[in-house]
Amino acid sequence: xxYSPTLFQTAAAGDTMTLLTGAxxxxxxxxxxxxxxxxxxxxPPTTTDGVxxxxxxxxxxxPISERHCRSRVGDANDSTNYKEQAGVYVWLxxxxxxxxxxxxxxxxCVFYRSQPSTILLEEIEGWVGGSGYRVEFNSTYNHSIAWxxxx
Amino acid sequence: MTHEIPTSAxxxxxxxxxxxxxxxxxxxxxxxxxxxxxxxxxxxxxxxIQLPAGEYVLRFFGAITRTAGSLDNMRYQWRQVSGALIGVxxxxxxxxxxxxxxxxxxADAHLVTAVGASVQVEITGVDPSVVLDTANxxxxxxxxx
Lengths: 151, 145
Known about the structure:
Chain A is about 0% helix and about 35% strand. Chain A is mostly beta strands and about 150 residues long. In chain B, strand 3 and strand 4 form a beta hairpin.
């Protein structure tokens, strides 16, 4: 992504909201970049880690797979919370003439954390067999929005 | 016990839009401001959504009218007027889900402006004969100021 730097209030940028982009790996959809450098966000230190927030947060993640999959995606640190998880169904076009958008997701993850937390975006369960594969997170389109809910 | 709200407290407001137009490569759709919070200050001029100074999250969902058997789709992204594309592209669902529940991937962006800015939703990819579903294409913009 790109922004016009001259429009930024550097000191306040991203104080309350941020756009998180990228994927740590094919199996870890946690972000690699943030539109904000604010201290309430800590990007994953390694490719197996999640994104950390030092304040209460609402995060809406759009998990994008670049391969056929039928999967549930959520926070691996809270994998029993089904209502936060996304059902991702991706079926790539069989023909190259219809490739406007090869990466689709069918749902969003919606996470609410009332305390400082780390959210690790991974596949919780997937159907494997036939044409089914595990989610492979796409680093170009995978993204999230996070709202900081309190100081 | 009483609690006073600090005078420096920030306020979150939002605005909701629908869209019209024919999806055409590198062209914007036309927004219609349906409603907004009091004091948001967001307005529409032609194809531009005009934002006063503040911090914003912008989210657009583009729907199309799909005919059975069609795999046609469109891709879209926010653009700062007279500037660059911003945020992450979204798209209509690419498979033929005309008879099944389908979803749309949003184009999302985050923008902080000290002097105000104008933004558009631009079509960055489109198959032939794609028709915008004006009843379902929509955007939400949150402002913190």
